[in-house]
Structures are given as structure tokens and as C-alpha cells.
Amino acid sequence: MTVRLDPADAAALIRARFPEAVEAVDGFAVRLATSALVEVCQYLRDEPSLAFDYLVMETAVDYIEDDYLELVYVVRSLQHNREVVLKVRTDGRDDPVVPSLVDIWQTAEFQEREIYDLFGVRFAGHPDLRRLFLWDEFRGYPLRKDFLPLAQ
Amino acid sequence: MALKTEPFVVNIGPQHPSTHGVFRVQLTVDGETIVDLKPVMGYLHRGTEKLAEEKTYTQCIPYTDRMDYLAAMSNELGYVMAVEKLAGIEPPPRAKWLRMIFAELQRISSHLFAAATFFQDLGGWGTAIMYMLGRDREQILDIFEMTCGQRLTTNYMRIGGVAQDVPPEFFPAVRRFLDDMPSRIDEYFDFLADSDLLLTRTKGVGILPKELAISCGCSGPMLRGSGVPWDLRKTNPYLYYDEVDFDVIVGQNGDCYDRFMVRFWEVGQSLRIIEQCLERLPDGDVRHPFSPDFVSGTFRPPKGEVYQAIEGPKGELGYYLVSDGTTAPYRFHVRAPSLINLTPFREMCIGWKVADMIVILGSVDIVVGEVDR
Q: Which end of chain B has less Cβ packing within 10 Å, N or C?
């Protein structure tokens, strides 16, 4: 049975190694500082007692009223059958940049391209950041809440 | 005298019988050998996630049907389970057992279809095998039709249960299917086992190493074909999968042959599960008393977010939902196995010939409706 790590426990684990990394914890996820994302993920993957070797899913949510986008990462250890959800927030909604995780989990490649395509988040360090579904000339980011399909 | 060659770009698709829908592959070839590959997708992008964020929770169910249109039941199942987790609704036992039967029937039909199109890709006895496997799949679609009136886009699952109970003719039809299938599997295996066509074109072709499969987030037969015994029905059981006996089929080499055989043997395991479900199917309701009506505008799950995954025929099918307490999901995201299983496609193809690329793509078993959503 997959154990979903209690976010409070996961936060304590991360804080023990990176005291500044955790910004907030709720019942669902651990929210990290954007600047700490890559080193925390690297640590989660490489530390043998954790071995989070599998990025299940990466996506974004547009919280337009609070003026930020939130990236959501579901991370799993196949070896220990444990799961944890990580989040980072972008600094505003105007051309946000978040570090890419492609070097840690290759599965991020298409998923980050999808987020770039539909939310307009740029991923620093992504080897091939192009739109995934829409054509290059397409204007706007459809999954943002201020993109209204019927009004176009 | 050696001929001078230079790399050349070839487009395969989007309209091509071997790309399983409107999927395009941009190949850079040196002679017949692939030196680089870029998948191009989006030709079937319908904005399902955006559309779903403007519908009520129940109205989203038919949209999920149209993603992996060869496995509609599984798509619905993952979605309604995510909403149930969000809203704290527990469906009655009969509904859960029925869901398992339909999920496994759907898995069989999806695997049979994958096998049939795979043989088409091999350039083999396409028509004959399509008819044979189509015959079995047809029986499953008939069972769906008698239950919910639809063969492909079934719209049968509901939040808190299933749309309606199965009709009386459902049981003899499933029984006949369960009785027919074992001898047919033997028959298929007889001509598969020593088929030169299958062995020479798939053994050792398109090898996906275990570490790469994990790093690329592959799931389902892709991951198991590479020797990782990971099946959400075992590792994170949902419904009543922890109460039935079945084996996880695992490959060894991670080549096209192993992926094909994993699917092939999984059909038998699904039959075992259905057999046990029929034995244990209890009487009772199939809908939770608070299960919302189809166009209900009053169903509002509490604020919160959820990630719920099931083992779909193609792999881990997950739904990430965010509720803001209104009638429509604030965020509706699908972790689509068809898209994510394509991540290592480039690595698997480099160094092989163009004709092998077709076989490798067939062994990944994508449905473009789910890749593009």
C-alpha cells in the first residue's frame, strides 16, 4: 500500500537538511522556496533511505486572484512505496520562471513543455522548451483563468 | 566503394496508418538508420482540461471518455474515484465490484486492440489477426452496450456508484466470454510462440532499460516490460483489488517483445479477476444516496485538492483535481500514461531502422486522444 508521507513529516525531513527550503505545509503538500527546488529534489532522489526515483506528475494551477501560479509535483519512491507532494509558487503571473527538473527526472521533459504551452511558465535549464500541443504562433496560455475560449 | 550519405529529415504522420491516430514523428535518418527523432503532438488537442473546468463535476464524465477512447471505462473510473475522494463519498459494495468487472473487461479490450494493431504494424497477417482479436473485443463491446447503451464512450460510472444496475442478460454474456477466452488465448499463443515474424522483428528491438523507464515515468506494460513489478492494483490497491488473486506480469529485457507479452498475459489475469468478482458480487444498491444526478448543479465538493490514480490499461492514469467549493473543478488535470510513456521514445528508436520505429511505437501503445487531450 502506497504510504502518502504526512506533509508535516516530509517537511521535517527536508528542514533537517535544508533549513531554509520549506515555505509552508498544509494537509496535502509541502511548499518549497523556488530557489531550493532543485537541490531538495536531488536530495530526495539520491538519498538511499528516501530514494524518490519516480516523478509521477507535474502540473500547474493558476491562482489568479492571489496573483501567482503554483507548480505541483507528485513524487514517489518505487522502492519504498512512498509518495509526497511538493509545490512551488511563481513570483507573479507575468512571465514566471521556475527551475526545470529534467536533469533529475527525465519525465519532466514533456510535462514541463505542456505547462509552458498551456500556462506560460518558463523552465530554466530545460533542454528543449517549445510548445507541446499548440502551434508556435499561438497567442496566450489557454489554461490560465483569464483566457476565455468563447470570447476569442 | 562506399557511398557518401548525409542525414535527411523525414516526416511520418500525422496522417499515417502506423501512427495510431494523428501523431507525427520527425525523423532524421542516415540512410535507413534513425539518428534523431522528434515526436510532434497536438493534432488532437481539444482542450479537455479547460473544458472540464467550466462544467459541473458530473458533466465532466463524458469528457473523460473521449481521452483514451479505447478504454473509456477506466478513464471514468479514475475520475469518479478522484471526485469521491474529494467529496468523501463511498460507493456501495455492489457498485465497486461492478466497477472492477468493467475496468477489467476494458483492460482486456484495450490489450486485444493493442495486440491487433501491433501485428498490423509488424506488417504481418494484419487482417486475419484483426478479425480474430476483434471478435473477442466485440463480445466485450456488446456487454457494454447491453449495460449502458454505448460501446465506446460508455458514460457509465457515476460519482458515488454506476449509472444503473446491469441487465439480466449481462451475466450469461460475461460467462460465455470467460468460457470462450482461455482456449482462444491458447490458440493465439500457439501461433505466436514460434512466429518468425514476431520474434525477429520484436526480440531485442527498442530496448528500454529499467533505470530509463523509471526516470521517464513510464508506467503500465511499459514499466513492467522492463522488469519493474509495479502495478497500482497491487502496490496501492483500490476498490477490492486487495481481495482478489492475480499475478503481476513482468518482462525481463524491456524490448518490444516483452511489452507485447506483458499485455498478452495480462489478459488472462484480468479474466481471473472477473471470475472472482462474479463470485463475490453482492446484491444491493449501485448508487450512493448522495450520488449527484447527471446534470446536477448542486453538487459542490468541499475546498481541497486530490491526486487519485488507477492502473489503466496503458499505465498509471491519474487525476489531479482542485476544488474551490463551487460546482465546477477549479483545476482538472489528467496524468495521461500515453503521453508520459512517449518520453523515452527517442532513446528507444535511435540506431534502429525506420521500419523498427513503427514497431517500437506500436509497442508503446498510445492513444492520441489521451496524448493530446
A: N
In angstroms, how far is the first alpha carbon of chain B from the final one?
Answer: 51
CA distance B300 to chain A (A): 19
* Residue A142 domain flag: no
In a domain, B34, yes or no: no
Number of domains in chain A: 1
DSSP character at residue A111: H
How many distinct structural domains can be found in chain B? 1
Beta carbon pairs, A and B, within 8 Å: 82
Min Cα distance A6 → chain B (Å) is 14
Query: CB distance B330–A54 less than 8 Å?
Result: no
In-domain check, residue A46: yes
Predicted TM-score (pTM) of this structure: 0.88
- pLDDT of A152 higher than 60: no
Question: B359: domain range?
Answer: 45-372
Per the domain annotation, does B158 fall within a domain? Answer: yes
Most confident of A45-49, A66-70, B132-136: A66-70
Give the 3-state secondary structure of residue B97. Answer: helix
Residue B93, classed as helix, strand or coil, is: helix
CA B29/CA B5 separation, integer angstroms = 10
Q: Per the domain annotation, does B231 fall within a domain?
A: yes
**Cα separation, B291 vs B294, whole angstroms:** 9
pLDDT at B20 over 80: no
Is residue A148 a part of any domain in this protein? Answer: no
- Give the Cα separation of B289 and B59 in Å (integer): 19
Rounded to whole angstroms, how far apart are CA atoms B42 and A135?
8
- Decide if B225 contacts B347 (C-beta within 8 A): no
Give me the numbers of helices (H) and strands (E) for chain A, helices first please: 3, 8
pLDDT at res. A75: 93
Among A81, A118, A149, the residue with its CB nearest the CB of B235 is: A81
| Secondary structure string (H, E, C) spanning A36-101 | HHHHHHHHHHHCCCCCCCEEEEEEEEEEHHHCEEEEEEEEEECCCCEEEEEEEECCCCCCCEEECC
CA B153-B156-B158 angle, to 5 degrees, is 130
